[in-house]
Write a structure and sequence with these properties.
- The protein has helices spanning about 15-40, 55-60, 75-85, 135-140, 165-180, 215-225; strands spanning about 45, 90-95, 100-105, 110-115, 120-125, 130-135, 140-145, 185-190, 200, 205-210, 235-240, 245-250.
- The protein is of the alpha/beta class and about 250 residues long.
- Strands 6-5-4-7-8-9-10-11-12 form a nine-stranded mixed sheet. Strands 1-3-2 form a three-stranded mixed sheet, covered by helices on one side.
- A hairpin with a 6-residue loop joins β8 (about 185-190) and β9.
- α2 (about 55-60) crosses α3 (about 75-85) and α5 (about 165-180) runs parallel beside α6 (about 215-225).
- The termini are far apart.
Length: about 250
């Protein structure tokens, strides 16, 4: 009786699983190596910058022409720019494969100045410390008085003593209102000495009474509407009535 032919183990047409996995790993490695070799940064475009040069932003970002595109972390790069450059408000990094990067920034601008010891601290409208400035730089800003125990690190919002926190929050509210009304060139000083009676100086000699700063945006818009009636060289007082009208008393 004829014996049946036995099939030898491993003689099938399929490749063993280990060889298939090895081929997949080699393919992935080859693609990754190719990306590192060929996907290199050839250009970085900077947009939106006025205060900082392209080179300064590139250095803060840690970006280099010739580096691998796959090694660029958008989140880390954006964070580097914002934290290293105090005048940068936001940064957005966009990768355009295979080899181009665009960095778009928005910048803060100096608006207020406060005297701390022998220095002038230059602040933006949110009371963020932008730099330690000179008297010359302070002359172009709204001069702030009435805050005590000021501390801060460049790039961060200043801090004050606990009893002055209300003054600081109301100052921030008023600075934003001044910015919204487009009066940053007209308001030359703000006193928060009495947080219930905030005083602004319009021009050189006109005192604007804002009380607690409630509805500061609306009131300063009204002030802008009647600005042509005011003589910034003449001493006077501007107040706001419950009727929504602006009252001007010339001294």
């Amino acid at each position: 009786m004829a014996e049946g032919t036995k099939k030898k183990k491993g003689s099938g047409t399929g490749l063993p699983l280990r060889y298939v996995l090895l081929a997949v790993l080699l393919t992935v490695f080859a693609v990754g190596l190719g990306s590192l070799i060929f996907f290199r940064v050839s250009s970085v475009e900077i947009r939106g910058n006025e205060r900082y040069s392209d080179e300064t932003i590139l250095e803060a970002a840690g970006l280099r022409v010739g580096s691998a595109m796959l090694s660029v972390s958008r989140g880390r790069t954006e964070s580097n720019i914002v934290h290293k450059l105090s005048y940068v408000d936001t940064a957005r990094v966009t990768l355009y494969y295979p080899n181009r990067i665009v960095v778009s920034v928005t910048e803060r601008y100096p608006m207020a100045a406060v005297r701390v010891g022998g220095d002038w601290w230059i602040l933006d409208k949110n009371c963020r410390l932008l730099e330690y400035g000179t008297g010359e730089k302070a002359a172009d800003c709204v001069v702030i008085s009435g805050l005590n125990g000021i501390n801060g690190t460049i790039g961060d919002i200043i801090t004050v003593e606990a009893q002055d926190e209300t003054r600081l929050s109301r100052l921030t509210m008023v600075l934003n209102a001044v910015d919204e009304a487009g009066l940053e060139g007209e308001i030359t000083a703000i006193s928060v000495e009495d947080p219930g009676n905030l005083l602004l100086t319009y021009g050189k000699r006109i005192t604007v009474e804002l009380k607690s700063g409630e509805e500061a945006s609306r009131k300063l818009q009204l002030l802008k509407e009647v600005a042509d009636m005011l003589d910034p060289e003449t001493e006077g007082i501007v107040s706001f009535g419950a009727d929504g009208e602006v009252h001007y008393l010339r001294k």
